[in-house]
Amino acid sequence: MPSSARRRRVHRKPGVDTGIIALIGLSILSIILQSFENLAEKYGGVFHVFEVATVAVFTAEYILRIWTADLLYPGEKHPRLKYIVSFMAVIDLLAILPFYLPFISADMRFLRMIRLFRLFRLLRVFKLGRYFDALQVILKVIRESSTRLIISVMLCLFVMLFSAIVMYTVENPVQPEQFPNVIASLWWAICTLTTVGYGDVYPVTVVGRFFASVISLVGIGIIAIPTGIIAAGFTSVIDGRQSDRDPKKYCPYCGHRIE
Amino acid sequence: MPSSARRRRVHRKPGVDTGIIALIGLSILSIILQSFENLAEKYGGVFHVFEVATVAVFTAEYILRIWTADLLYPGEKHPRLKYIVSFMAVIDLLAILPFYLPFISADMRFLRMIRLFRLFRLLRVFKLGRYFDALQVILKVIRESSTRLIISVMLCLFVMLFSAIVMYTVENPVQPEQFPNVIASLWWAICTLTTVGYGDVYPVTVVGRFFASVISLVGIGIIAIPTGIIAAGFTSVIDGRQSDRDPKKYCPYCGHRIE
Amino acid sequence: MPSSARRRRVHRKPGVDTGIIALIGLSILSIILQSFENLAEKYGGVFHVFEVATVAVFTAEYILRIWTADLLYPGEKHPRLKYIVSFMAVIDLLAILPFYLPFISADMRFLRMIRLFRLFRLLRVFKLGRYFDALQVILKVIRESSTRLIISVMLCLFVMLFSAIVMYTVENPVQPEQFPNVIASLWWAICTLTTVGYGDVYPVTVVGRFFASVISLVGIGIIAIPTGIIAAGFTSVIDGRQSDRDPKKYCPYCGHRIE
Amino acid sequence: MPSSARRRRVHRKPGVDTGIIALIGLSILSIILQSFENLAEKYGGVFHVFEVATVAVFTAEYILRIWTADLLYPGEKHPRLKYIVSFMAVIDLLAILPFYLPFISADMRFLRMIRLFRLFRLLRVFKLGRYFDALQVILKVIRESSTRLIISVMLCLFVMLFSAIVMYTVENPVQPEQFPNVIASLWWAICTLTTVGYGDVYPVTVVGRFFASVISLVGIGIIAIPTGIIAAGFTSVIDGRQSDRDPKKYCPYCGHRIE
């Protein structure tokens, strides 16, 4: 869509975007630094000033973006309304709104969660530069394989639920503290099937270990299926791209002219 | 098979199916909730009533399905008998039968195991909707790669058995409690080769660690082989599907008629 | 090689082979059971008798195979000598020889190691039946990708050595017991790069954790490369096989006759 | 580049190269052995003499390589300068320079780090023999997939940062020692997403475990994407190599001339 890309370019100034992304980055860095108790105590004032400044800039940016939305959707009847309900604009709003609602800001923990939306704002990085194309390829592969990936995730969840119930039945009488209920058992199942294996919960009975062994082996398969789907997806998309480059007028195999 | 699909559609009413699947889901949720000791004590009566109601519905459904089996297999001589011995019908029977046999129901643990058959009943979800096609692709890939996958599982079991015996020989004199016998050693081998690595059992001798290192590296290969098989399977099936759609009488690339 | 396959069939009697494989299986089962201390004490006599009987049968089989070696290599000048130095015959000899050398049999541990050669004898299972073909495909893929796989293993060893030395330098002053020397550090590197992660050794310093994080991420790549190689190998071999089935006289793409 | 390869062959004598590589190998072995405290104490003098001898040989080699650089780049104006700033020459210099700077050599730990450059010198092994070709294939795959791999690493880092902040918020109040700040939480995120799972840090709250489960499942995807990219890269490069060999003027399938 070259014309829509041109329109977007009108709306966006590269310098402003780079600046905003840098500010988002700094804002996330400040979240990380504030998590260090001694830093939070010592430089509490600095963090607060930076916070206020950041929110001010983000708010200004948000208002200006709504203002110029008619440049983004020229033919549209209500361009500003359309912009406000767009995914990125909602994220942008959620990242600043809580700071204007004192009753929310009161709870530090909730505030931090809300500020996570700024991370999503960081996704804008992908819009810039030469990586955009590669990201599109990855997203295309995921989109084209989506139903297969969903099915494999569903199979995975089914196996997890099954393992969790069996393991609870087998291990609960021996380790009531490790396997108190099916939900706790599900935690074990997920750790095992994804091959993370923290080692905080593991079977000790012979039946449990036998069953866990079978589940671990199934785990390899569980990993192999989505990997296989994605690998085949990339093979197919890359082949598709290459054939795009070939002139379509001749058969790439036997060289016959295609009329 | 469009005609068999049509017949099945006669037998199945989408509304009923959705209701039954919802009930199966609720029934599994009740298994999970009952595993919480405090919930089981407090709402014991509720769970019991729900259980009786569920079994009643499942029994009615089972009888009705046998009743209408002649619609499912019209040309068949003994359609009801054929339905009764079908895989899904056996699962359905196993999911309700134990509740009519008091001497089985007496043992709570065994009962829970039996109820696991309801999970298999949940597999019906896959029959519905737009994911059926994607599931067929996954099953086709697994079916077509089945001999290769079985061989790779056999190689894997062989490596596991080998590692277990070697590790038992090496580590047993130093850690008799961790490696008391070859079966316990096999547990270590499976945890390592599948890269789960709980950390409950691991070698401490230099020889044992050297051997475990080799085994871990082999583990990558063990995972790589089935993943590679499945990836190649998907590549091949996806390509195959595309060529299925093309009429075989024309070159799929340039459209020339093949004489 | 149909003619070599026919010759082999002359030499081998399916019934005898199945019996021998069953005996090898039982012999390995006996190794496993003997590792249980209480069983070894209680049924020591039974195990001994079974051992002697097994070795007797294996010895008889070995002699008969040498005897009939001329049927296996009909055109050969020294068929028996050729058979004796073949891989499977050496394995067969190693599996029985120690029992005739009393000074070796004296050491139980060494004896158990020697008996591991019987596991390799179990590899004969793959010669039988319908899985032989699938095994050939897997072996072909590994053989064709062997140089690439060796390079990726070498890269992997290089990364391991590098990580081990860095980690020893960083963590040794803080955890001298966990990282006493580079070899111990290498154990950590292997556990991490193969994503096994037992959790017996892990970095605690900030620098160490930062470095371990980089290494873990590299670990994904280390696994991805051989998996990718093998996946591509299977894709290539499966495509090759399919084109084998196609009649070679016509171009499979445009249908032109190949003169 | 056949002509550049010929020039390089003039500069390099296989015997010398093999000797140098062997000396690098011994030098790294000495680093490993010196990490054993008792060996370092007992054979301190031997290690020192070997060190001095090694550095002497490496220095002589470095000077001779500069001397003969005009044979390597015959047409060049300043061949020696060009050689000195080349990647391998800088590595070579870094591997010997510190031993001539007494104030650096004073710090044993820093010295060991510097000596790590010798590991990079070991990379010369790949220049020799029949594996060079296979390494080129692997490097070509990585190079061609590099933008996609970088994007998937960036996505991975994004998911890690996101998980770390969420997990810190959820687990910090319950386990302040395990999740003291976002950086510590990041360590958990990396261990989990790469499926290493040491088990030194793991969530204990229900919310934390639910979140960790989602992250673990995403972890499979995180591994699947680069594996898929590399697998598709190998498939493409291997296919590409085959088509490179085929003359482009004929249909690769039926051999018809393409007009």
Protein architecture, described:
With 259 residues, chain A is an all-alpha fold. The first copy, chain A, has two domains: 3-131, Four Helix Bundle (Hemerythrin (Met), subunit A), CATH 1.20.120.350; 146-249, Orthogonal Bundle (Helix Hairpins). Chain A has helices at residues 2-11, 14-34, 37-42, 44-67, 69-72, 79-84, 87-96, 102-105, 108-115, 117-122, 131-144, 146-171, 182-193, 206-245. The radius of gyration of chain A is 26 Å and the shape is extended. Chains A and D meet through helix 2, helix 9, helix 11, helix 13 and helix 14 of A and helix 12, helix 13 and helix 14 of D.
Please tag this protein with its features.
homotetramer, 259 residues, mainly alpha, Four Helix Bundle (Hemerythrin (Met), subunit A), Helix Hairpins, 2 domains, 14 helices, disordered C terminus
